[in-house]
Write a structure and sequence with these properties.
6-stranded antiparallel β-sheet; alpha+beta; 131 residues; globular
Length: 131
């Protein structure tokens, strides 16, 4: 479960506005970004909201990408998690993220990187550590 979890918000997106409005185009972009990064898509689900944005997720062999658009705000949120089970996938996560950011062209970005699965981290009070 060791890996990188990128949580991001793109605001005032200046890229192709169809990416915010069309679930099919959004899905194609997400697949393209993951393929270019060398990530393997094993399943997907995307939904178009009538007269609004879209939401979707790719299940990756390495974990997942979830993405949501708000065209009325020119905004996108995304959640990209890649685990490092068989290899270090941090560079792949960075590549997929960079492609998405380049396509949406946000004027403002809020990004949080979370390192997941650090086994050597302290045990949280009230929990127990598995052997």
């Amino acid at each position: 479960m060791n890996g990188l979890h990128i949580l991001a918000e793109f605001h005032a997106c200046k890229g192709d506005q169809h990416l915010l409005l069309d679930a099919g185009m959004l899905a194609a972009l997400c697949r393209r970004a993951c393929a270019a990064a060398g990530l393997e898509v094993v399943a997907e689900a995307f939904h178009q909201f009538a007269g609004a944005g879209a939401t979707g997720a790719l299940v990756l062999a390495e974990s997942h990408l979830a993405i949501h658009t708000w065209p009325e705000l020119g905004s996108v949120t995304l959640d990209l998690y890649v685990c490092n089970y068989s290899q270090d996938n941090r560079a792949a996560a960075a590549t997929a993220y960079d492609i998405l950011r380049t396509e949406f062209r946000p004027e403002r970005v809020v990004r949080r990187d979370v390192t997941r699965g650090a086994v050597e981290s302290a045990v949280v009070p009230g929990t127990r550590q598995c052997a």
